[in-house]
């Protein structure tokens, strides 16, 4: 088989056992990898009625079909499980650098079942795997947990939860690369329910595509088109998704005042201008791209807020919407610190902003 490893790893946390499963080629042809393969496996294995935070829920960490190749936008990661937030299908897509490292470690995906007796992390290095004690890690925030794992394998990538995940908060996210989040669906709580603090992967395997020349030619053509249309790409490179922030707060795209307000009336042009992409970009110290992505829409920022200095990933549209319009806030110091705290602790930014907006409304009424 080309383009994939052809196998996934099952980890049975309660028994501390592993199983490698070969996936037939026709399944890859039908479902590709990532989300599709996740749907296939969860649908095959889960009968319905499972408690999302119980031992029978399956947490899948999925690499993607283009992971590991120089395909722009193709380096992302997918996490799947039954969602404790909705009681039905849950998935969260994530940037960063974990996906290609997982694929190069020898597995297209990892599926976790059961609940470990003690906190653990999974370590995979070039096809060899083990469950390791995470007692020292339990209670640490996501940045510290990532630091800890990367000290063990400096060239590896780590996927971790913070304390909200350990406590099974339904708004907990799964983090990598110090601020890239698989945030939606409450999947951090699923990981925490399994007492799985992190996953450390290191992979040096190079997976042969079916036709490397054709792949290289196609990527070259994409790059030529990209360069020809650089004016379209430029706002994303400069501002990321915050390119949309001010307009979205005024045109009805962003929820305002816990979904009850109207942007132009309740938030206003002056406030929208304060949280625009150009304002946020003033703190940018360098560009950031997920693995293998030449668009590189991300940014690292440094900002001296009145709460202290922040250095990390730039605010994105979701954060500005959740902490901005939804809560009628246009104070960039406060928003930047809220964003930083969510990333550090491992909280989904959208859901956290929504919970605060709901609390504000409860307080007011
Ligand atoms: S750098 Fe931006 S465009 Fe590229 S994969 Fe990451 S989020 Fe997507």
Account of the protein in words:
With 365 residues, the chain is an alpha+beta fold. The chain has two domains: 7-202, Aldehyde Ferredoxin Oxidoreductase,  A, domain 1; 229-364, Aldehyde Ferredoxin Oxidoreductase Protein, subunit A, domain 2 (Orthogonal Bundle). 37% of the residues lie in helices and 22% in strands. It has 14 helices and 15 strands. The strands form three sheets. The protein has a six-stranded mixed beta sheet. A hairpin with a 2-residue loop joins strand 7 (120-125) and strand 8 (128-133). The longest helix has 17 residues, at 212-228. The protein is globular, with a radius of gyration of 21 Å. The mean pLDDT is 97. Bound molecules: iron/sulfur cluster. Iron/sulfur cluster is lined by residues 73, 76, 95, 289-290, 293, 295-298. The site of iron/sulfur cluster has 10 residues, from loops.
What structural class results from the helix and strand content? Answer: alpha+beta
User: What is the level 1 CATH name of the largest domain?
Assistant: Alpha Beta
Helix content: 25-40%
Mean pLDDT: 97
- Ends: how far apart? 61 Å
- Level-2 CATH architecture of the largest domain: 4-Layer Sandwich
Radius of gyration: 21 Å
Strand line-up in the sheet with most strands: 2-1-6-3-4-5
Question: Unreliable stretches, pLDDT < 50, 5 or more residues?
Answer: none
Largest sheet: 6 strands, mixed
């Amino acid at each position: 088989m080309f383009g994939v490893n052809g196998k996934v790893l099952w980890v049975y946390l309660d028994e501390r056992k592993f199983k490698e499963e070969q996936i037939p080629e026709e399944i890859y042809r039908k479902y590709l990898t990532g989300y599709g393969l996740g749907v296939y496996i969860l649908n095959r294995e889960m009968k319905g009625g499972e408690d999302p935070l119980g031992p029978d829920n399956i947490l899948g960490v999925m690499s993607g079909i283009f992971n590991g190749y120089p395909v722009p936008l193709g380096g992302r990661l997918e996490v799947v499980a039954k969602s404790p937030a909705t009681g039905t299908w849950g998935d969260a897509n994530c940037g960063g650098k974990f996906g290609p490292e997982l694929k190069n470690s020898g597995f297209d995906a990892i599926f976790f079942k059961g609940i470990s007796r003690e906190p653990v992390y999974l370590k995979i290095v070039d096809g060899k795997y083990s469950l390791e004690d995470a007692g020292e890690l339990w209670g640490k925030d996501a940045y510290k947990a990532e630091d800890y794992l990367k000290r063990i394998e400096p060239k590896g990538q780590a996927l971790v939860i913070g304390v909200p995940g350990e406590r099974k908060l339904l708004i907990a996210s799964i983090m990598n690369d110090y601020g890239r989040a698989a945030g939606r669906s409450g999947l951090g709580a699923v990981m925490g329910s399994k007492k799985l603090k992190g996953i450390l992967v290191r992979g040096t395997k190079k997976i042969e595509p079916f036709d490397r020349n054709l792949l290289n030619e196609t990527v070259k053509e994409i790059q030529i088109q990209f360069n020809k249309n650089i004016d379209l790409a430029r706002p994303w490179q400069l501002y990321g998704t915050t390119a949309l922030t001010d307009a979205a707060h005024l045109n009805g795209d962003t929820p305002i005042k816990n979904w009850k307000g109207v942007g132009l009336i309740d938030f206003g042009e002056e406030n929208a201008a304060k949280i625009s992409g150009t304002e946020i970009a003033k703190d940018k110290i360098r560009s950031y791209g997920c693995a293998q992505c030449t668009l590189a829409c991300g940014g690292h920022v440094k900002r001296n807020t009145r709460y202290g200095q922040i250095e990390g990933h730039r605010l994105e549209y979701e954060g500005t919407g959740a902490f901005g319009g939804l809560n009628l806030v246009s104070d960039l110091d406060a928003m930047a610190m809220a964003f930083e705290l969510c990333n550090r602790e491992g909280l989904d930014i959208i859901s956290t902003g929504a919970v605060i907006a709901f609390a504000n409304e409860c307080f007011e009424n």
